[in-house]
Amino acid sequence: MARIKGRLGRIAAVTVAGALAVTLAACSSGGGGGAAAPADIPATGTDDGSTLTLWTRAPLEKQAKLLVEAYNASHENQVDLTVVPNDDYVAKVGAAAGANGLPDLFAADIVYAPNWASQGLWKDITTQIDGLEYKDDLNKGHLAAGTVDDKEYVVPFVLDLSMLFWNKELFKEAGLDPEKAPANLEEFADAAKKIQALNKPGTYGTATGLNCGGCLVFTWFPSVWADGDQVLSDDGLESLLNSDTAKKVYDTWKDLYDSGAVLPSSTDEAGPTWTAGFTEGKVGLQFYPATLLSSTPFDAGVSGIPGPEGGQSTFVGGDGIGISKDSEKSAQAWNFLSWLTSEDAQVGVLAKNGDAVARGDLASNQYSEADPRLVTINEVAAEGQTPLALNFQQAFNAPSSPWLTLVRNAVLDGGGSVDADNDEITAVLSQ
Amino acid sequence: MSSNAIKTRTAPVRRRSAQQRAEGWRGWLFAAPTAVIVVVLFVVPLLLVFQMSASDWPLLGGNKGLNVPENFTDAVANRFFWNAVGFTLLYTVITTVILLGLALGLALLVQESTRWKGFLRTAILIPSALGLASASLLFYVLYSPIAGPFAGLMNDLGFTFLGTPEGALWSTVFLIVWRYAGFYMLLMLVGLQAIPDEVYEAARIDGASRWQTFRSVTVPLLKPTIAMTMVLCITGSLLAFEQFYILTKGGPDNSTITVVQLIYSVAFQGPNNLGVAAALSVIVLAALVVINIAQIRVFNDKEPK
After folding, report:
1. Are B48 and A19 inside 8 Å of each other by CB?
2. Can you tell me the ipTM of this complex?
3. Angle between helices A2-25 and B219-238 (to 10 degrees)
């Protein structure tokens, strides 16, 4: 009996938690963007010793903690940080949004920002953002993702860029130049195969997350951009992932996979451990998140992600952050956001930790001078892109997304269904 | 009952009815705690789900008004709906056959063996003490091609437990059998012990073989127990969620999506549409009611009255 009750109970609980939460809020927000924050907020907000709550997701925990610690140490206001597991974040925000229980500040995977902004989860802070004297230097991809109908809701929280990382030690062993990045996707594949040919037990050429839509978006889109192609139409309603360039990318990976140069666990990797192999020094080179630069214990080279023909690009991912519709401390919350975009936070916290800065004018700073890899990262960031689509999660990140079907068919199976699978992505995007 | 009582006892009407009213109140008072729990935790949520299933209700946007029958047509038109139904039924048949067969076998074994009875019973029952989610996590690590103890073996043989649709299905079935065999064995054991020894004695005197005894004595007398465990097992399997959510996330290649998982993913992983998710829940609820009524009918018909 316990089993039935337990299960029925849980299903009821899942549906009901949402239901209860949402009913309470049913009368509040509608679509079409959130309300504007009060106009009388001072340029740098208010620092009066209030306590602010902030939610973010686990992959950016390290950066979020450093930022919050630095802010709390230098301000009267105190930020109370909650880190939520990546997979639970949307559900948690959804339930809180329904119950009018969102924290003062919350971050979102930047690819979800267009959807969340249009659902009205953040306050309109156009006036405040436009008041920043360095607004034009803020990362354009992030700002664009958080702009709906010319109203701005989001500033960059932490930038996460996908870069090509290579293990210099393994490069040397394989007779490759450890100081030179593979210039195109073909050279990338060659390097992976050469490292595989070392036949070191437990060491593989490259790795990826073939069952992780988010990882694949993050690391494979840049190869398409690098050759000047696009992955989505401008309105985000149509998928262009069956272009010749995209097909070349799939073919390269299929060839790599068939040759055995891809870490075997990559086949079913759904995300949690997709970077582990490289971090442990078991993988020669990988398209990898730049936020992990400071956690990479050995000497690694860094460059932009190459395309089939050369060129390089990156996925400007990471999180954007805004003031929630439920916050009653907009002025204090803006104080955090204006500090976040200041030189103190960008250089003093993020660059110091080896992360990309969200402001072009700070791309070269005292820390990047010490580590030329940071200059590379900041420079490639300027060439990178953030894809915009309302149904991004369903089309790409969800475990059952059509994008995952496309990649798995193209790489693990014979291929040949790219066009049909691409239509399926378009069908979801245009819903 | 109470109305009969009032009708038959005509003489001291006033006193009786007053007393009865008091008793009625007391009865309500006793029932109130349960009634409140049932209403708050079952009736209200159920009504909410019905309301939700009839409304356009995005996760992040709240109730946006009526949306019938679009929610239901959308639910059925979901590109994973029929796959999920098919997979859930397949999974239910496999687990029910294996679990009940194994549970009956284990129960007979435990009942027959005298020396090791206590040890066997405990050993088989211990996995039931573990929550299903914890058990799934345990097996996630066991099956992991990176962290698991069989990682080396998997590497050498070039296969992974969760890498193919069949592998993922059977790996999950193994987990469920490991987790629930003890529980169902216990239920079977209770049923077995309720069969009086005299019947077996009579069978022995009549010269019945073990197999004959099993077929003509044990199985018919165990029928109510089998019916109950079957209802439990089928309902539980049709509502399978945790094990697949943790072990396979519906993969590989969307081959292991169960109906409840589909509900979860429609609500929280992508479409974020509570209306359609609730419509799916209502469909599942209706299907479960029909299936359970059918099962109870079948077993009742066969029983001698």
Report:
1. yes
2. 0.73
3. 30
